[in-house]
Design brief:
The protein is of the alpha/beta class and about 425 residues long. It is built from 15 helices and 17 strands. Bound molecules: pyridoxal-5'-phosphate (PLP).
């Protein structure tokens, strides 16, 4: 099976017509505060293309039925669409088989699932879980909960002043006590893209399984879980131009087979008596109850959309935009970037001397420009850089240099107000 990236290269996709991309996102045509909306909070969630909106409404209007249990045609069609979406996500991530894809509510649930199943069965007193200093709270707290319960220890690999993982120090943390490494692919508050393939090699050198949090990476770059050779990989639908309430966990089949179930309920069982319950095969063993059927099908439409646009075009467009924005923002007096890694993508986190980030966000909003301010669910990153919060502009495939110009103008207004 070819990965999305390989298929795009094979298909020779290159053409990228930004205006035609923008037309596919109806929300972008809106005005906000009386000005055309500039949406630069994509790291929080991306906007949805018409094809995803249509897929959702078509599903509810014409295909809605519960899955896996009906003998009638509508239910069989819904089941096929849901399982078809699983196959699409498997192809998108280049998993070996659809059964390695478990639908979850979001990335957070994917990480909690691994902590509560793999973690609870494999991690004991005195064992260690290794994460990094740049993790989202979603990749910190589930491991803290597990470590507290088990008497295990959470070890944290540091980052340097540019916001890059210090690989030697991560390597030095690994050893016989380490039961799992869990690391972010791309940081949501710094933009750093971690050398995850190298981290996988380091972990596997000690036979340690590794989870990669791909919440940010998966909509900015092609992901191939088999080339990465990772054991778990989580994505979240609403950042992939898909619906909220749906995400996916990739897991290596051998590990998934051995893991205990996550939640108990319908669909995850093979048979139930009051004395004994046996469990369904993967992936169903991990999907208790009626899943977010429409969400999964909508996510399938979103990954098809990403495939159609092509990551070769997305990567080069966003690269150009990031370079343009980095130069444009650097010219603003008193602006300091937080996150200056050599390998970074699509995120500009910054502080303005003498202005609280919340004031920055509020003033640029009056210009119709939506950016995020705060700790971005990465409080340890804020502590590391000695700031309470940052302002963050984050890019997606539909942003333009014009959007960046509007941001720069809005930031100049902030300077005027605070001068
Ligand atoms: C790096 C990273 N990990 C995890 C998450 C959690 O995603 P969700 O809230 O969709 O579960 C996010 C969301 O911002 C993120 O950026």
């Amino acid at each position: 099976m070819m990965s999305v990236a390989q298929r795009n290269v094979a298909a020779g996709r290159a053409a990228f017509d930004i205006q035609s991309i923008r037309r596919q996102f109806p929300i972008l045509a809106q005005t906000m505060r009386g000005k055309p909306l500039v949406y630069l909070d994509n790291a929080a969630t991306t906007q949805k293309p018409q094809v995803v909106l249509d897929t959702l409404s078509q599903y509810y209007a014409a295909e809605n039925a519960n899955i896996h249990r009906g003998v009638y045609a509508l239910s069989q069609d819904a089941t096929q669409a849901y399982e078809g979406a699983r196959s699409k996500v498997a192809t998108f991530l280049n998993a070996a088989e659809p059964a390695e894809i478990i639908f979850t509510r979001n990335a957070t649930e994917g990480i909690n699932l691994v902590a509560q199943t793999f973690g609870r069965s494999e991690v004991g007193a005195g064992d260690e879980v290794v994460i990094s200093e740049m993790e989202h709270h979603s990749n910190i707290v589930p491991w803290q909960l597990l470590c507290e319960e088990k008497g295990a220890r959470l070890r944290v690999a540091p980052i340097n002043d540019d916001g890059e993982l210090v690989l030697d120090e991560l390597a030095a943390l690994l050893g016989p006590r380490t039961k799992l490494v869990s690391i972010v692919h791309m940081s949501n508050s710094l933009g750093t893209v971690n050398p995850v393939r190298e981290v996988v090699e380091l972990a596997h050198g000690f036979d340690i399984p590794i989870l990669i949090d791909g919440s940010q990476a998966a909509y900015h770059m092609p992901v191939d879980v088999r080339a990465l050779d990772c054991d778990f990989y989580v994505v979240t639908g609403h950042k992939l131009y898909g619906p909220t309430g749906i995400g996916a966990l990739y897991g290596r089949r051998r590990l998934l087979d051995a893991m205990p179930p996550y939640q108990g309920g319908g669909d995850m069982i093979s048979s139930v008596t009051f004395e004994r319950t046996t469990y369904n095969e993967v992936p169903h063993k991990f999907e208790a109850g009626t899943p977010h059927i429409a969400g999964a099908i909508g996510l399938g439409a979103a990954v098809d959309f990403l495939d159609d646009v092509g990551f070769d075009a997305i990567v080069s467009h966003e690269r150009r935009l990031l370079d343009y924005a980095t130069v444009a923002l650097s010219g603003l007096p008193g602006l300091r970037f937080i996150g200056t890694a050599c390998e970074k993508a699509s995120i500009l986190s910054f502080v303005l001397d003498g202005v609280h980030p919340h004031d920055v966000g509020t003033i640029v909003d009056t210009e119709g420009v939506a950016i995020r301010t705060g700790h971005h669910c990465t409080q340890p990153v804020m502590d590391r850089f000695g700031v309470p919060a940052t302002a963050r502009a984050s890019l997606a495939m539909y942003n333009t240099t014009g959007d960046i110009d509007r941001l720069v103008t809005a930031l100049s207004k902030v300077r005027e107000v605070f001068s």
